[in-house]
Every structure is written in C-alpha cells, then in structure tokens.
Design brief:
482 residues; alpha/beta; FAD/NAD(P)-binding domain; nine-stranded mixed β-sheet; 25 strands; FAD/NAD-bd_sf; monooxygenase; FAD; Flavin_mOase-like
Length: 482
C-alpha cells in the first residue's frame, strides 16, 4: 500500500477564507508544509460560483478585503469578477495557487490520538484518495454549494416559462424584452432587480413575503480617494478600513440599543429616494428590528432608482400558485412572468459536508461547543473559519487566521502534538447564530453551540474580538496541550 502524503496543515476550501488562511501560513510560518483541497475545478469559492447579473459584495470592500493586502481604489461594493480577481491575485502573490489541489471533494476526516494526525479522505475523479495532516482547517464556508434553498410552490409544473435559482444562473439565459419576477427580498434579490432592469428586461418585479431593511450607500468611497492622494494606497486602505469598521460597529450597536431610532432614519432615507406617495410602509418597513436580520446595502440607491423610473416594482404578498403565465398571489393579483427567479436563500451546510470523527467516534457538530467561534470542544488540532453575520466576512477570517498561526507556533515551539478545547459542562448553551433569517433558522439546530461566557461566547463584534484574540493567553485553562 502506498503511504499517504503528509502535510503540516491541511486547508479545506480555496475561496476567500481558504486563500486568506494559506496566505497567512505563507507569510507568517513559511517553513510549514500545507495543501489546500478544493472541490471545484477553480479557486474563488462563492465569487466564482455565483454568476447572476449584477453579482457584487454586500459588504464594503475596504473591510471585505484582507487586512494584509489592500483593496485598491475607491469602489465600495465591488462586482463579483473584481472580487474574484482580487482573491486569485492574492493567491498568486503569496504562492498559494501552487498548493491548491482541485477536484478534491473531501468526504471525511478522522483524528487518531495515537499518531496525533488527521487522515482526510477525498473523492477525486471517482477515486478515493487520502492525505494526512497534523492540523486540519475548514474554510469551506457555511452553505451548500450544490443547491440553494427553493421552497415548494404549488403549480410549478404548469408554468410555461423558466424558473432559475441565482446560485446556478444559466449562461444562455436571455432575459431581453421579458417580464421577470424575482422572489425574495435579501441581498441577492436587491442586487438582481436593478441589474436585470438595466440590462434589457421588459419589467422586473421583486416579490417579497415581507420587507427587508434596505440602505443606500455611496458606490465609491470619497474619503478613500482623498486619503489615497494624501498618504498613498496602503495607508489610505488601513485608515479607510478602520473608519468603516467603527461606522459599522456603531450602526450595529445603535440598532440594538435604539431600534426605533434606526428604523425612523432608514425609513426617512427610503422616502427621499422613492416616488412621492410610494407605499414605503408596505414595501420597506419590516416588522422586525434592525439587525434581527442582515441589512441590505444598495450602491447609490440603484434599487430605488429602478423603482422610480418604472423599470422595476415591488409587490409584498404571498404566492398562492404558479399559473401557466406567471404567479397568482393570495390577494388575487396575478403577476405575469416569462422568467421567475427564486432568490429565496441558501441551505446551510456544516464544514462543507465533511464527516468528522475522533478516535473512531463520529463528531456531531450540534453536540459540540465552539471555542472562540473557531475550534470545537473535544476535537483536537481542528479550526474552522466562519465570518461575521453583522459585518464583513473577512474581518473575522483574518482574526481566525492570526489566532491559528499563534496556536501552530506554540505547538511547534513546545514540541506539543495536539491541542483541544475542553468544554466546561457548567457553561450554558446558546445558538451559534442569533439571526432570524430563514436560512439560519432552518438549520441552526445542526450547528455547533456557543456558550454564555468567554471563551465560548460569540460577540459578533470585531472591535472586541480584535482586542481579545490578539492578546488572549493560549494557556487559558480551556485549551489542553498534550
């Protein structure tokens, strides 16, 4: 039998998180051997998979960009291709692309305490392959790449048009001159509607069951432009990044402390950008408080502009059934459509579907507790990267990478073979994510739990995490080194 290949660190996923994790290893632990296993044939993760019209970031790029590599320019909400280029350029600059193995669908990972190693099994071109590693790092995000979420809607077989989910947008779809209905009100829907309206559709209707908070932001960061002229690209990136971090954190804190105030401010800005007499309270005034679900950002108010010029509209109602020519609503209204886009959300998937086991015992994620929202109780030499739900994903991804590098340095310098968070059974449990969004609520029971006290509690606060994670003692009485 051929001996399995071995690396010091094995990263699963070559998207924004995985490329960032590998770049941290390359620059901070250059003598570490590592490999990145990527299921798809190319890198980029989300930013290569999603190809729907107008696909863009829903966080500003000066915080979505890596801390160690500036996002150049003033564009705040960038298009998908620009983000993909940025991720791949980062991989090339740090030599990460030479360590990525494509077409590797990781199915299982087994920890053996006697050897202090992981054995990771993948499917490659229909064959099974294994690789061993001292440390395993899951950077596969938290949603299912195979299928997005589409609710059951009566009468779908009767519809003579085309039904499309944004996660798998057909390259040959021609929507020119057609009437489209986009079902949904989240970040994908508010991106699609103005993009489709501006690219030849006859009319686009955003059909939502209930409203979402939608905020217009400048498409370009004027402050970043001025700072760049004064202090150069790298320093202006750092300053703009901190400016945006502080503003995001302040908005979130005020939203939680004074929800009625934030609701009034958002409503006032919406009214100013919509037609006179528009039914703002019907279509843009949610029943829940700000940041109970993620807020949607629209650059330069493009969604409101499309509504104002008549190329798009919003309908708030429930679907009764598909018909041959569109959708019949509970109210009795009929929406004519030749293409229906189900921007109805994602399916969560823990660790990309990889089955973990420790010494022959299957790890059930929902029975574990997340240590600092990046390691699992009872699972040695394992880390995972999941970004913030109330701020840019990469802010947390960078902090996780910095912390994992500290852990790896400690393992190496002390000759220690393994490290595992040991759970305190007296710590009460809470859900890992506290958003009311449907994609979270459908699958929150499958996720690891968080605790009510540090280091088990998840703050969703970058300023707090940046201060704590960069100074936290590794000998904290929770991590067991052996």
């Amino acid at each position: 039998m051929t001996k399995a290949e071995h690396v010091d660190v094995l990263i699963i996923g070559a998207g924004l998180s995985g490329i960032g994790a590998a770049a941290h290893l390359a620059k901070d632990l250059p003598s570490t051997s590592y490999a990145v296993l990527e299921r798809r044939a190319v890198s980029g993760g989300t930013w290569d998979l999603f190809r729907y019209p107008g696909v863009r970031s829903d966080s500003d790029m000066h915080t979505l960009g890596y801390r160690f590599r500036p996002w150049r320019g003033t564009v705040a909400l960038a298009d998908g291709q620009s983000i993909l280029d940025y991720v791949r350029d980062t991989a090339h600059e740090y030599g990460v692309d030479e360590h990525v193995r494509y077409g590797h669908h990781v199915t299982s990972a087994a920890w053996d305490s006697t050897t202090a190693q992981w054995t990771v099994t993948s499917r490659v071109d229909g064959e099974t392959r294994t690789i061993t590693a001292d440390f395993l790092w899951s950077c596969s995000g938290y949603y299912d790449y195979d299928e997005g979420y589409t609710p059951e809607i009566a009468g779908r077989d009767r519809f003579r048009g085309q039904v499309v989910h944004p996660q798998h947008w057909p390259e040959d779809l021609d929507h020119t001159g057609k009437r489209l209905v986009v079902i949904g009100s989240g970040a994908t829907a508010v991106t699609l509607v103005p993009a489709l309206a501006a690219s030849g559709a006859s009319h686009v209707t955003m059909l939502q069951r209930s409203p979402t908070y939608v905020i217009s932001v400048p498409g370009n960061d004027a402050v970043k432009g001025r700072l760049t002229r004064l202090v150069g690209e790298e320093r202006s990136y750092s300053l703009t990044r901190w400016k945006n971090i502080v503003l995001q954190s302040a908005l979130y804190r005020v939203s939680r402390a004074r929800p009625d105030l934030v609701r009034k401010v958002v409503r006032k800005t919406n009214v100013a950008q919509l037609p006179v007499g528009y039914e703002v309270d019907t279509h843009f005034n949610p029943s829940y408080d700000p940041w109970d679900q993620r807020m949607c950002l629209v650059p330069d108010g493009d969604l409101f502009a499309a509504i104002k010029d008549g190329s798009a509209s919003v309908v708030t109602d429930r679907i009764a059934t598909f018909t041959e020519t569109g959708l019949e609503l509970v109210s009795g209204e009929h929406l004519d459509a030749e293409v229906v886009v189900t921007a109805t959300g994602l399916n969560l998937q823990v660790f990309g579907g990889t089955e973990l086991s420790v010494d022959g015992e299957q790890v059930k994620p929902h029975e574990t507790m997340a240590y600092r929202a990046m390691m699992l109780s009872g699972v040695p030499n394992f880390a995972f990267t999941i970004g913030y739900t109330n701020a840019s994903w990469t802010l947390k991804a960078d902090l996780v990478a910095e912390y994992v590098v500290r852990v790896l340095k400690r393992l190496r310098s002390t000759g220690t073979r393994s490290v595992v968070p040991v759970r305190d059974e007296s710590v009460a449990e809470e859900p890992l994510m506290d958003l009311d969004s449907g994609y979270v609520q459908r699958m929150v029971h499958t996720l690891p739990r968080q605790g009510t006290v540090a280091p088990w509690a998840l703050k969703q606060n970058y300023l707090y995490d940046a201060a704590r994670l960069r100074t936290a003692r590794l000998d904290d009485g929770v991590l067991r080194w052996s």
